[in-house]
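Researcher: I've been going back and forth with a colleague about how TrmH family tRNA/rRNA methyltransferase might be arranged in three dimensions. Neither of us has a model we trust, so I'd like an independent prediction. The organism is Polystyrenella longa, in case that matters for your notes. Sequence below.
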Amino acid sequence: MNAKRKQKFAGNHQKCWLWGRHLVTETVISGRWIPRKLILSEDLGQTELTQLKSSLERYQIPLEMAPASRLKVLCRSSEHQGYVAQMAEFEYEEFSDFQKKLEQPSSAPLLILDRIQDPQNLGAMLRSAEVLGAAGLIIGRTDQVGITPAVARASAGAVNHLPVVQVESLVDLLDALKSTGYQVVGTSLAESVPLTPTLFKRPTAILIGNESTGVAPELLNACNLRVRIPQSGQLDSLNAAVAAGILLYAASLQG
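Model: Here is an independent structure prediction for TrmH family tRNA/rRNA methyltransferase. You can compare it with whatever you and your colleague have in mind.
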């Protein structure tokens, strides 16, 4: 990724601004999501500038130095630590490119999300997927929160390291994965088996559904297996991000 890509400005505060020393630095250096502009506090020392210089040149990212007070106005936070990046819309990996990596299925699971609405949940799932060795995360285009700076912050920077794919049809996606040898495991309280690590001996795609309604019926019907997480409390379900983390951990035990 040596050439600067044309980038569309996202258009509002939550989608435009990324801030914080670690997250901004990691984003600039990784080159996964290239900022439109980097704005640093005039109070920063030469060491910080030197660390970023080669990446700014490689990805042709404009640099602006400004008073810390201006950074606070831009990101509407006093926790910027002298680092603010103006972001373009996130560019998802093409499924056709990602699919080539799946021609020889591995023990690393895939995480597929059906209509997740909460940016904090999506960020938490990204973080769990990256930490627990998932091969990638796949989302649909309809009724699904996308990758924004708010999601990136919730993911603790995992968005810079984990492939994220967006597809038109999750039903078609599941069919394609099953044709390459993956089993699709969906979460459901009804007509399901208890979760155990032995369920993940085959290459697996884990399907997590909407926070309120769960996995859509047409997607559940396409699953090879429906699982539930054994529980002993009074509540009948877990937060979607927590459930995803538990399933990813169970799958990692077979790695």
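Researcher: What would you highlight for our discussion?
Model: I'd start with this: The first helix runs from residue 13 to 16. After that, consider the following. Residues 95-252 form a domain with the Alpha/beta knot fold (CATH 3.40.1280.10).
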